[in-house]
Design goal:
six-stranded parallel beta sheet, zinc, binds nicotinamide-adenine-dinucleotide, histidinol dehydrogenase activity, binds L-histidinol, alpha/beta, Histidinol dehydrogenase, Ald_DH/histidinol_DH, binds zinc ion, globular
């Protein structure tokens, strides 16, 4: 049974369930994450390898856990030329977008005569990119993380990703390493990957930041280890809203509504509209499309439409917009008569795609903007991954003698009211 909700008639509990999506309680995973992390902290590689065998069913050695340069080259060569070309094209657009996003290396403003203030932007010291591999293979995620890190000129970029069933890394991912220019890759995923880079092991380096989407195990590990490593944005199970009115093409609505629904049973894909007529026209297209999917993806979409996803019926386009702002989706498409008119009213969304020809697929892979986005309502305060994740700003200030004299008394007064004697003396007794 597909969820079709009339939003204003829905009980409070059901509304909360929809808004909460799969942000379920991960406390059970937190206990495991703590246990695994503690062991990795003390036992290093040996524990990482043991957990990889247990959770990924792959037996590696310290030597084979690190990807060799020839593995990257061979993976690149094995990949068919068309796919290599597509990935290189995506990398080009992403580089273009992220280069345009880069802030100035330095800026200053004269806040008063003789008083200069500004900021200096510097790449972060190092970063670990987490590329998931469980319910799918994600070379595009490596592009989305690696390209802004490169544009920002991070001096050390490390990649961790779960080994596939054969204990190796997919050729498409290896090819992306070559395209981006990344050569430090480790076959490790889940909790053990986050813990390994948080503490460092004999083989895997300690990193100061780990960034990338992951399942609830990876998320639990990030929470447990937040005192040891900067864990970046919260990017959990994929979610989307298609906001449509009666003018939308039902076939295109069906196609796009299903995109993020196929990620997994924990994803959430909603069609939000005031037009019951549109929904009636969309559903047959969904059924037709479902028949074209693999069993795994069909199951994910069906589960999705019965749990966190489905249709939200509202009273008007304005009410649909209100719902979007309340829900704060990761991805969204505006398929209304005037998408550019709706745009200014969307306040909370990780990504806003306009019109009938901008399916989420485009932005997930190659349009340019970053597809690693905040989930679980975090789009109310977080932004997409960007070059800003890979740089930090230092405040810079300068006062001339004349500028200092202008503000000396004010600074003294504030130091006194705060009760900081040395702060006060440093301005009072300065000749
Ligand atoms: N928000 C975003 O921008 C974005 C982008 C891409 C993907 N995603 C989401 O990221 C998630 C990726 O998850 P995934 O599962 O495909 O890959 P993943 O790499 O996060 O998870 C695989 C790892 O989970 C661990 N694991 C699996 N079962 C375990 C168990 N029982 N106990 C302990 N550890 C276990 C294994 O170690 C394995 O290496 C999906 O939910 C997808 O929707 C989000
Ligand atoms: N939709 C994902 C982010 O939520 C990104 C992605 C990569 N591959 C397929 N989809
Ligand atoms: Zn996707």
């Amino acid at each position: 049974m597909m969820n079709i909700y009339k939003w204003k008639e829905l009980s409070k509990e059901k509304q909360e369930f929809v808004l909460k999506r799969a942000e379920f309680d991960i406390s059970a995973h937190m206990k495991l994450a703590q246990e695994v992390s503690d062991r990795i902290k003390t036992e290093g590689d040996a524990a990482v390898l043991a957990y990889t065998e247990k959770f990924d069913q792959v037996k590696l050695t310290a030597g084979s856990m690190k990807v060799k340069p020839e593995e990257i080259e061979e993976g690149y060569q094995r990949l068919d030329a068309e796919t290599r070309e597509a990935l290189a094209y995506a990398a080009k657009n992403l580089t273009h977008f992220h280069a345009a996003q880069m802030p100035e290396e330095m800026w200053f403003t004269n806040v008063d005569k003789g008083l200069m203030a500004g900021e200096k932007t510097t790449p972060i010291v190092d970063v670990c990119l987490y590329v998931p591999r469980g319910k799918g293979s994600f070379p595009s995620v490596l592009l989305m993380l690696g390209i802004p890190a490169k544009v920002a000129k991070v001096p050390r970029i490390v990649v961790v990703t779960p080994p596939n069933e054969e204990g190796s890394i997919d050729d498409s991912l290896l090819a992306c390493c070559k395209i981006i220019g990344i050569d430090e890759v480790y076959k490790v995923g889940g909790i053990q990957a986050i813990a390994a880079v948080a503490f460092g092991t004999e083989t895997i380096p300690k990193c100061h930041k780990v960034i990338g989407p992951g399942n609830s195990y990876a998320t639990a590990a990030k929470r447990v280890l937040s005192n040891y490593i900067d864990a970046g944005l919260p990017a959990g199970p994929s979610e989307s809203i298609i906001l449509a009115d009666e003018f939308a093409d039902p076939e295109k609505v069906a196609l796009d509504w299903m995109i993020e629904a196929e990620h997994g049973p924990d994803s959430a894909a909603l069609l939000v509209t005031h037009s019951e007529e549109l929904v009636k026209k969309v559903l047959p297209f969904v059924h037709r499309q479902l028949a074209k999917l693999s069993e795994k993806r069909r199951d994910f979409v069906n589960t999705n439409y019965n749990t966190y996803g489905g249709v939200i019926l509202t009273d008007s386009v304005q009410k649909s917009i209100d719902f979007v702002n309340l829900y704060a989706p990761e991805h969204m498409e505006v398929m209304t008569q005037d998408p550019f008119g709706v745009l200014p009213q969307i306040k909370n969304a990780g990504e806003i795609l306009l019109g009938e020809y901008t399916p989420i697929t485009l932005c997930n892979f190659l349009l340019g903007p970053n597809a690693i986005l905040p989930t679980g309502q975090f789009a109310k305060t977080y932004s997409s991954v960007s070059v800003m994740d890979f740089v930090k700003r230092s405040s810079v200030g300068y006062a001339s003698k004349e500028g200092f004299e202008r503000v000396r008394d004010y600074a003294y007064k504030i130091a006194v009211v705060e009760g900081f004697d040395t702060h006060a003396l440093a301005v009072k007794e300065r000749s």
